[in-house]
């Protein structure tokens, strides 16, 4: 009989959520480095360079890879010869570990979990509760897998009940383009097939905990039908040309994982969940000897890639004197380095602005000729003015875009991934522009922020309106004043190019 002490278990969860906040798994870094070397799209290569540079910076500085430090998933396989020395339930134990991990003063993580998903949606302030899955197995140990899943990728989860004769490959190839780039590729796809609806979703999530090994698989060759299917999907998804951050390129996925389970004769449940550029998970075993010991990856696992602003290729923009005429002159795919003061705001702030305008109330800040950045930053520590502050998915703000451009004087927006048709039409109609920052480079972006203060809606926490003072913040013109989107033109161009390029494993 193995006895697991309460404090050892809680400490292991707390240490785990800290560990995965700043360390990418080595397999992800190695596959991403190969993707960087072979990438031919300049925009995608630049995005991957930012992600790799950010990753090394986070490993060295022990700060979060992404400002969205995720919802915590804990997968437990508990040996039936294990006893827990505690009066708490498993959910309570895991939540206490998450609480301590997220409130660690040396590296506080962003609290993103809201109570009451339908009505009050009030932040719990400690990122609890987490999602716990428990399986009882033979043995005297506790196997723990812990992951932090960001909202951008989680929101792209897909489920379908296929007919038994329907093609899984056809469904995946139809569905991945519909997911857009809000899940921050390049990453991986976890697929669950079989069981029931909830079983398929669980298998897809668990598949994302597996090591990325597509390079090794393609080197040795497939040994069964499931491996053949993984390779087929890997090649065909990458042939879509979506590329890093959806800008068009050779690598959209680094791996495809598939879990299966017996199912009803009339059913073929299929779930697909992507993992993003902030792939974060760890695996450890508890045997009663104390808390888990997590071994950091070696810095030699990272490639010699160090992104820095390119003043020869990028246009320097002064936000303090920005005009609509200047915004109208920007071209799709052009890279900019922003300096000066910008405002921030995301879901809750936009909804409150809308409500205030409808009531005829004055806004707390003047948006005239200003740029807004869709971000919810991590709290700062030590000498930081702000913690990691990467972009959030912009399509969630699409429903507010026409209002903001028409009624507030706003002239440009910054976020991640594509915009939808309604937002693009509003941008074209008002002669505005949408700029894209790289998702998965939150710590790198934060180094461009020289000053930060809350100027509105302080009660919203990380969703408050900030004013950032930035220096050489890198962005790409994703939608210009004519409504041309690089998230349309980029993948279309690279889809045709890839048809003529032999794919090799990354």
From TrEMBL:
UniProt cross-references to PANTHER family, sorted A to Z: L(+)-TARTRATE DEHYDRATASE SUBUNIT BETA, L(+)-TARTRATE DEHYDRATASE SUBUNIT BETA-RELATED
Pfam families for the chain: Fumerase, Fumerase_C
Name of this protein: Fumarate hydratase class I
Family classification: Belongs to the class-I fumarase family.
Subunit note: Homodimer.
Top EC class for this record: lyase
GO BP terms in the entry: generation of precursor metabolites and energy
Record-annotated Fe-S hydro-lyase tartrate dehydratase alpha-type catalytic domain positions: 11-284
Function text: Catalyzes the reversible hydration of fumarate to (S)-malate.
Entry's EC annotation: 4.2.1.2
Keywords: 4Fe-4S, Iron, Iron-sulfur, Lyase, Metal-binding
Listed GO MF terms: 4 iron, 4 sulfur cluster binding; fumarate hydratase activity; metal ion binding
SUPFAM superfamilies to which the protein is assigned, alphabetical: FumA C-terminal domain-like
Cofactor(s) needed: [4Fe-4S] cluster
Catalytic activities: (S)-malate = fumarate + H2O
Domain Fe-S hydro-lyase tartrate dehydratase beta-type catalytic: start-end pairs: 288-489
Keyword presence, Nucleotide-binding: no
